[in-house]
Structure formats: structure tokens, C-alpha cells
Amino acid sequence: MQPDKPASARVNLRTPDVMSHVQAQVESHYRSALVEKIRTQGGVLREGGTTIRLAKQFGFCYGVERAIDLAYAAGKVFADRRIFLLGEIIHNPDVNAQMSALGIRHLEARPTPGELEQLAANDVVIIPAFGAEVETVQQIRARGCQVVDTTCGDVMSVWKRVRQNATEQVTSIIHGKSEHEETRATASRALGPAGTGHYLVVLDLVQTHRVCDFLESGGDPAEFLKEFSGAMSPGFDPNIHLQRVGVANQTTMLRSETETIQTLIREAISRRDGGRTENFRYFDTICGATQERQDALFQLLEDKLDLLIVIGGYNSSNTTHLVEIGEKKHPTWFVRNADCLHSAREIRHYDLHRKEEALSADWLPLERPLTVGITAGASCPNNLIEETIRRILELRGESVTA
Asked: Is residue 386 among the annotated active site residues?
């Protein structure tokens, strides 16, 4: 790597003239007049024997809109420079394809040494809405690149908490997916400014119970380290680093599960410490938009639905949790876009349990009145929702008439 260079001066991308241009671009790519109309009708569209019911909250959240706006603005302000995107701007393949269409180049979320070497001081690197690991950002800045940071404010709130934990020698237990970009970024902040902090990532209640067992009863540290390999800080010792813990989370996890995890860990520490809980701390860091979409789906599921369609990227954490909620009550199909709806007989969808795309038959009844619920993850644009609605109506032999 070439010698460190001073960080590029901060550039205000959100000037009125730039944002006017950006807004026109973004609306042309992602806006849906039909979705907006359905919202004004109370979230309901009826055509012939088909009723479409939209959740009250779905699709793009503020953090996603801001990230996309900044990426588009970077394309205008730095039109004469090479622009790179670190990983994916959000977890939606259609949106990321649009970034490529704008001429924005791609870097791996964890760039290889070769990728870093190709960066020059005049290049621009966009950090996605999930954020990025501390070391990666430092390496990019050391190349002298102009950094456009689109990290969501809710994510940065979690970073503040885990950094505080590190400075107070409190281990951060992070509820999340250890390979998710956001969780990796949060874990890197949990090491603290001096790099002496510690973290442990738990995926679910099964892993949480394992942690609670160790908290109360101890066990073989080697077995514990093997079980959580790749999901803990360097030098992690469960005998030492589980003495004082604070629960944080990947902001897009299922709120009820995060709350259960923090309760289980607090109770385990209380039992271990004779009823005291001063060695436990917890801050509510679930993203507000994630919670709104989950709450809206619970409300939608109270309606009489025949089936539920969830639209979004298959690697989108907040979208997969919507699927988990939906499939407990109604037949639920997780699709990327309208192209997945091959026919009334065949649908291509993502199977969360098999963790792969699958084909299923006879998913859409044709011979009777039908009510279809629709929601979408925070990384799904309205145009994809409209296309899916129109495709359902087309397969049912109907179309939007007003």
C-alpha cells in the first residue's frame, strides 16, 4: 500500500441543485404512481375477484432513501472521477444493478489487497447503508480516496453503544448474522478505539441458550470457542469476557427475538451473580423502520388473506424476518420481483428453510375470489411492488382499471 495520505475534504453532495437532479433520477427509476394511489385508498385495491392489501408500512425506509440519494449525488458531483461502491448499496439486486448502470464500479465488501491497490487518490468510494469495518475504511482513506459515507444513522447508534462497552471493559453480545456486513461493521467498533474490547455474535435462541449455560455453569472453553468460531473477537476467553456483557443487535433482526435474547442473558447473569444485574446492560437499538414494517405486517395478517407475497432481496435480513412472520399464519411466498411469478401454476421463490431458490406449483388460485397481502423489505423500491401487483392481476385475468 502506498503511504498514508490526508483524508479528502468533506464535500456537501446535498445541495439544492444536485438534489433536484437526483430526485428526478430516483423517481424515474423507483417511483410507482399505482402504489401511491393504493396508499391513498387505505392500502386496498380491488379488481374483479381479486383484492390486493398492502401493509401500512413497507418498502424503502429513510436510511435506504438517503443512501441511494447520496450514491446518485456522487455520480453527478464526481462525474469526472472513478466511483466505486463497497459491496452493495442495499440488499436488492435490482437497485444494485441500477448502480452499475450509472457507471459505479464494484468493490468487494472486504476488498482484496489487489482491489485496494487499484484505488487512486482521485477515486471516490461509497460506503453502503450497512456501514463497513473500521479497518476497511482506514485502508480506503489511506489511499487518499474521497469517501461518501451513506451509513444509516440507526446503525451508527449501535456503534456508539458497543464502543462505550469497549471503553468500560464490557463485552458486546451482538444479536445478528456474523457474516452480514452490518454485523461485521458493528463488531469492528466493539473492539473500541484501542482494539482491546471484545464481542460475541449470537444468531438465535439456540446459541443464546448455549451462552446462558456457560454464564451459569461454565464448561469447556475450547468447546465454546469451537462452537462460536468466526463469531467472536480475537483472543476471546469465555471465562473472562463473559463476566460483564451488554446486548446489542444488528438493526434489522426480529425485535421479539432480540428482546427474548436480552431477557435470557440478563436472567442468567442475575442467577449467576446472586440476583444482581450490574454486570448486564442493554440498549434498544432495533431500527425504527424495521419495527414499523414488522408491526404493520402483524396488523395485515389479522385480515382474511388467502396468501402473502413478500418482495425483496434474498440476502436482505429485514425482509427475511417479514417472511418468518408471515409464514406462521398464511401461505407466504418470498420473491425478488415480478419475474418470479412465472404463471398461475408456477412460482420461483426463496425457501428460507432450505436456504435456496425453489419452484413451487399451483400457488395462485384462479377460480374464486382471492385476497392477496403484499409487503416488502426496506430495500425494495415501489416500482418492483407495482410490477408484482400488475403481474398477479394479469395472471388472474384482470388489470388495473382506474
From this structure: no
